[in-house]
Amino acid sequence: MGQAQSSTSEIEKNRFLTGAQAIMQSLVEQGVHTIFGYPGGAIMPTYDALYDYQDQLKHILVRHEQGAGHAAQGFARMTNKAGVCMVTSGPGATNLITPIADAMLDSTPMVCIVGQVKGNLLGTDAFQECDVIGMTMPITKWNYQVVDPNEIPDVIAKAFYIAESGRPGPVLIDITRTAQTDVMTVPFSYEKCNSIISYRPRVEPKKEHLQAAADLINAAKKPYILAGHGVLISGGEEELKAFVEKSGAPVATTLLGMSAMDADHPLFVGWPGMHGNYGANVLTNSCDVLIAIGMRFDDRITGDLNTYAKQAKVVHIEIDPSEIDKNVKADAPIVGDAKATLRALLPLIEQKDRSEWRKEFEKYDQEEYEKINKKELFHEGNQIKMGEAVNMLSEKTKGEAVVVTDVGQHQMITNRYYRFKKANSIVTSGGAGTMGFALPAAFGAKVAVPEREVVAVIGDGGFQMTLQELGTIAQSGLPVKIIILNNNFLGMVRQWQELFFDNRYSFVELQNPDFITIAKGFGIAGHTVKDRAELSNSLDTLLNSDKPYLLEIVCEKEENVFPMVPAGGCVTNVRLD
Amino acid sequence: MKTTYTISIFTTNTVGLLNRITIVFTRRRLNIESLTVSETERKGVSRFTIVIKSESREFVEKLVRQIRKITDVLAVFGYLDNEIVFNEIALFKLASPSGGKPIDAKAINLDWNAKVVHFGMDYVVVEKNGTEEEIGEFYQYLKQWDILEYIKSGRVAVGKTEKGLVEYLPEGNWEIV
Ligand SMILES: Cc1ncc(C[n+]2csc(CCOP(=O)(O)OP(=O)(O)O)c2C)c(N)n1
Question: Which stretches make up the ACT domain (chain B) (predicted)?
Fold first, then answer.
C-alpha cells in the first residue's frame, strides 16, 4: 500500500509543475524571450527553474534591480510589449520602485515578478519581507500576490494583458516562496488573456464623438495638433501623418511623442513645453482648435492652466478616460486608441490648405534660430556646447538612431537638436524625470532592437546614478553607444539656481571621477574630447565602434537651456535668454 | 458651500482593493466622511458606499473617473442626496442604574422611532435608524441620560432609479446570490 502511494505521488510530481516551473512555462507561452533580473532568497526556486529554461528564456543579469527595471522599460519602449523583470523580496523589490513609478507615469508596459517570503511567514516581519503590494499599489496599474501555484498561469496571463492593453503600465506579481516550491494540483495550461470584466479599455472610438470632433476641425481656421506618446504606443505614425497632411494643420509632438513625425516634415513645428520651441509654445494661445492626440496636458507642457489655450476649442483624443477634462477641458473628447481614432477620423476630415497659418510659426522659428541655435551651433569659442554635439550626432546618424536620454539640460538639448527621421526613436524619462534612467534603458533598448544604432546621451550627474550597469553592457557585449555631456555640474538645477535663486549655487558642483578609467575598469573602451576641432572625429570613433563605447564630451560649464517657459508661467511668456 | 456626495463603487471581490480605492482619496487630500462595504446581490461583487463633502462638482467627477480607472472596479456612480434613498444606523448604550432616571422606552419608540434592543443590568442599548441629522437630534435628546457609548454606521444608499445599479454592470455571467 505504502509503496503504491509513493509511486502515484511520483507520477503526479512529474505530471504537475511546481509554481516556479509554472512561472517559466507561462512566460514562454506568453511569448516572452527576455528577462532582466537579479536573484536572491525568495526568488531562488524560480531561478532554479530558469536553469532548465535557458534556451527558451534569455535572462540578463543586471547589477542593481533599478537597472533591471529601466532596462525592461527601454525594451518595452522599443517593442511595445511588456518588459519583464524578476527580482527577490525586500530590498530587491524596493530597488524596483523607481522604475515602476517611472513606467506608471510614462505609460510603459512592464511585468515585474517579485519573490516573497514563505506563505506562513507573511506578516511576521520575516527576513527580507516587505509589503510590496502595499508599497506599489499607487504606482502600478495592477498588482497581485500569489500564494497558490495553481493561480500562476492565469495571473501571469492577466498581468500581460493589463500591462500591454489600453493605456499601458507596470504590473507587479508578488509570489511567495511556497507558491514557487509547491506543486500545482491541476495540470498546467496557459491561455492568453484578452478580456477582464472589470477592465475594458475602449480602442475604437464612438461614431458620434468622431463627428463632433471632425466638425470642429473642418470649421477651424487655425487648427494645431499636439501629438503625444499615445501615437507611438498605438503605432499610429502613418495615421498621424495622413491626418496632418489632409487637415493641413501644423503639428508639434510632446517630449514623449517625439519621432512620431519626421522632423523635416513641412508641417512639423517642433515641441511645446518648458524647454520646447518658441512658436510651438506661443501659438498654442493663437490657434482656434487644439487637437491633442494621445497626450495628457502635463504641467510641463501647459504651464499656467488659467492662461492655457483659453481661446481654443479643444479636441482631445485619449485612451484613458480619466485624462479627459483632467487638466484641460475638452469640447470634443474622443476616448479611443490614437491609431484607431485617427484612422476613423480621417474620412471625416476635409482636405485643406492652411499654409498661411503654418507660416505664422516661421517668424518665431527664425527668432529662435537667431537668438539660440546660431549661438550654440556656430560660435567662435573652443569649448564644446551641448547643442552642437547633439546636432552633429543627429547629422552623423542621419536622424535614424534610437536616442536614449537621461534627465537634465542634456535631455532638453537632445530633444532640441536631434532631428528624428524614424518613428519610435526616443526613449526618455518624461513624467518622472528619473536621473539614472538612460544607461540601463539604452541597454534594454539595444537588447530589443540590436539592429538599430542606440545612443545614450547622459549628464555627468545622472551617469553616476546607475553606472554599475556598464558591467551588464560589457558582459552582453552589445554595442551600446554612450555619450556623457559633462558640464561638471548638476546642470539643470544649477540653471534654476542661476535664474530663479539669485545665482546661489547650492550643492550643484561635482567632483567627477575619471569616466574613461571607470569604463575601462568595466572593460569598455572610451575617450574624452574637449576640443571642438576633435568633436567630429570623436563621434565617428564612437559610432564606428562595434563594441560598447563611452565618449565623454567636456562641455561648457555654465550653459543654459533656452527657450524656457518658467514653471507655472504662461506659454506665451517664453524666455529666449 | 460644501455639498455631500455619495459614491457607489462596484468591484470584484479582491484582497487589498479597499486600499487601492482609498489611495485615490488620500492623494487628493480628501477626507472620507463615511465608508461602508458590503456584498451585493451578484456573487463576487462588492459595493463600497463612500460619502464625501466637496465644494466642486468637477473635482468629484474627476475623482469618480480616477476610481473607475482601477482595474478591479466594475462601475462607479456619484450621487447628490436628492438622487438617493439613504440611511445610517446608530447604537446608544445608556446607563440605567437603579435609582437613576428611568429610560422612557415609550417616547423613544413612539416619538423618536427608535427602539431599545437590549436591557442589561445597569444599562440599555437603543437602536436608531435615520439620516445623520435625525440621529444627531436623537443624540441630543438622549443626553439627559448618561451615554456610555455611541456608534454610528456609514451611510447605505440606493439610487432613485427604476433599475437596480447592478443592471449597469458590464455584461457577464453573473451569479445571483
Ligand atoms: C533621481 C533624481 N534626483 C534628482 C533629480 C533632480 N534633477 C533634475 S535635473 C538634475 C541635474 C542633472 O545633472 P546632470 O545629470 O549632470 O545633467 P545636466 O543637467 O548637467 O545635463 C537634477 C539633480 C532628478 N531629476 N532625479
Answer: 6-87
pLDDT tens digits, one per residue of A390-426: 999 999 999 999 999 999 999 999 999 999 999 999 9
Residues 6+ positions from B29 with CB-CB distance below 8 Å: none
Q: Touching check for B20 and chain A: CB below 8 Å? A: yes
Which residues span the domain enclosing B40? 3-84+156-168
Say whether both B110 and B55 belong to one domain. Answer: no
Pair A289, A350 in one domain: yes
Q: How far apart are CA A13 and CA A10, in angstroms?
A: 5
* Selection from B86, B93, B177, B101 nearest residue B127 by Cα: B93
Q: Are residues A290 and A394 in the same domain?
A: no
Residues B18 and B74 both lie in one domain = yes
pTM of the shown model: 0.95
Closest residue by CA, ligand 1 atom 3? A435
Q: Measured between CB atoms, which of A138, A200, A322 is closest to B23?
A: A138
Rounded CA separation B139/B117 (Å): 16
Q: Give the ipTM of the model, two decimals please.
A: 0.91
Asked if A134 is an interface residue toward chain B (Cβ–Cβ < 8 A), one would say yes
DSSP secondary structure letters along B40-67? -SBTTEEEEEEEEEES-HHHHHHHHHHH
Angle in degrees, 0-180, between the axes of helices B17-27 and B57-68, rounded to the nearest 10: 150
Please give the tally of structural domains in chain A: 3
The residue segments making up the domain with residue A148 are: 2-181
Q: Is there a single domain that holds both residue A411 and residue A493?
A: yes
The CATH number that applies at residue A457 is 3.40.50.970
Q: Does residue A66 lie in a domain region? A: yes
Say which of A137, A198, A326 has its CB closest to residue B12.
A198
Tens digit of each residue's pLDDT (9 = 90 or more) over A212-227? 999 999 999 999 999 9
B contacts of A321 (beta carbons < 8 Å): 65, 68-69
Residues B79, B89 share a domain: no
Copy the grid coordinates of residue B98. Answer: 437603579
Spell out which residues line ligand 1, taking CB within 6 angstroms.
A 406-410, 433-436, 459-462, 485, 487, 489-493
Tell me: the pLDDT tens digits for A213-271? 999 999 999 999 999 999 999 999 999 999 999 999 999 999 999 999 999 999 999 99
